[in-house]
Amino acid sequence: MENKSSTFKMVSDKKNIEDIGLDKNEETGIKKYYIWFFISALFFFFSLALSAGVYFIVTRPVEFFEDPLKALSVKLGLSVEQSVESNLVPRRIDGVMVKPGKENFYPLAIMIDNHFEARPPSGLSKANLVIEAAVEGGISRYLAFYASGEMLDKIGPIRSARPYYVDWAREFSALYAHVGGSPEALVKMKKENVLHINEFYNGSYFWRGQQQAPPHNVYTSSEKLDEYLENKGLTEGKYFSWQFKDDENIKSRPATSTIAISYPSAYYRVRWQYDQNSNNYERFLAREPHRDVDSKTIKAKNVIIQRIARREIDELLRIELDYIGTGTAMVCMDGKCADGIWQKKSATARTRFYDNDNNEFLYNRGTTWIQVVNPNTSLSF
Questions:
Q1: Phi and psi (nearest 5°) for 42?
Q2: Which of 42, 77, 149, 374 has its CA 20 to 30 A from that of 122?
Q3: For the residues 368-381, what does the mean pLDDT come to?
């Protein structure tokens, strides 16, 4: 039975060949023809692609090879971060592009000392946003905001609260960390149920260092304050973001730019020096580069000059600021400064800055410093 089946298949195969008028040798030749045709086609398209590649390399500008990712990103209309990973999202506090889930950590607002005996600071260069304003005696302090999720081992020195700093922290519903405060600030925080942590009553979340004399020796860490937030069940921020943009092309940036702010005391005079290559402003304090204790230079992508009227209110020279309402401002980024106005509608409303056409400014992604000055403070550029 098996032999008959085999014989039948051979006869059938022979019949099929005979039906189209080919013998076995001719059939093999056709198969070889198609194989060589396929190989030739592959070789042709490979040569064509190689020629196109050589032409592309010869005609590309030098910048492409120095930073091919950036060149490709510009061609596609994307930021560098977007071309690397398209699902990045802007961080709410400073617009930096981050992975989803890292864009909205609960913000910390820490009252950092700027007395000349308290220098250098710790962790100030890592802040996402800083507001500098005067307290009494011509001394300024910093309200430093942190919401990047970065772990910082030491932040400070930390000093006492003032009412206007309390309301700036409330713009972010932030945890406000301080060491005591003026009577007005302490009453305000209690009366208005402000989320804050006072070292006087929460000593376990702070420590007093040995290298500096009191009261310039109180510090905390992001880990300790995150622990406090965790105990309160607070994980995500609840505030409105500003609007952000990518840096301008380096060719459109000025070569040099300096912003000098003449605070009354030489110990607190500020200068911001623009660096064209990095598109950052580097900070100088009392004519020296302003650095953290770890020697990291303090830099900002955006520098805002906010003019606010102030007056002394008691014998201790404490001051009151007209920080709710509106006033004039200057916003500096990409090596250029533009006049504008600021507006804060209420104690908890976010301060916003507008150009002279009433358009809200778009800021570069990264750290912003707000320098609060008297309307008559001398500035030079």
A1: -60, -45
A2: 374
A3: 92
The single residue listed with the structure tokens 């772990």 is 151
Helix (H, G, I), strand (E, B) or coil at 175: strand
Backbone angles phi, psi at 225, to 5 degrees: -75, -35
Could you tell me the CA-to-CA distances from 174 to 170, 197, 261, 340 in Å, in that order?
6, 11, 28, 27
> Are the beta carbons of 371 and 298 closer than 8 angstroms?
no
Domains 108-232 and 243-380 share a fold: yes
Q: In angstroms, how far apart are the furthest CA atoms of the chain?
A: 122
pLDDT at 76: 44
Number of H helices, E strands in the chain: 8, 24
Helix residue spans in the chain (DSSP H): 2-19, 24-59, 62-66, 68-76, 80-84, 163-170, 183-191, 222-232
CATH class in words for 108-232: alpha beta
Distances (CA, A) of 311 to 80, 97, 111, 323: 47, 41, 21, 12
Neighbours of 290 (CB within 10 A): 21
Domain edges within the chain: 2-59, 63-90, 108-232, 243-380
Q: How far is CA 291 from CA 116, 193, 284, 285, in A?
A: 13, 35, 9, 9
With tokens 């990045």, the residue in question is 88
Q: Is the dihedral of CA 185, 190, 195, 197 positive or negative?
A: positive
The C-alpha atoms of residue 46 and residue 39 are separated, in whole angstroms, by 11
How many residues are present in the chain? 381
Decide: helix, strand or coil at residue 335: coil
First to last CA, the chain: 105
- In contact, 158 and 113? CB cutoff 8 Å: yes
pLDDT of 205 higher than 60: yes
Contacts of 240 (CB under 8 A, 6+ apart): 350
Report d(CA 141, CA 302) in Å as an integer. 19
Answer for the pair 231, 195: CB distance below 8 angstroms, yes or no. no
Q: Cβ distance 98 to 85 under 8 Å?
A: no
| 127, HSE (Cβ side, Cα atoms, 13 Å) | 30
Take residue 72 and report the two structure tokens written for it.
């490709």
- Which CATH code for domain 243-380? 3.50.90.10
Provide mean pLDDT across the span 94-109. Answer: 97
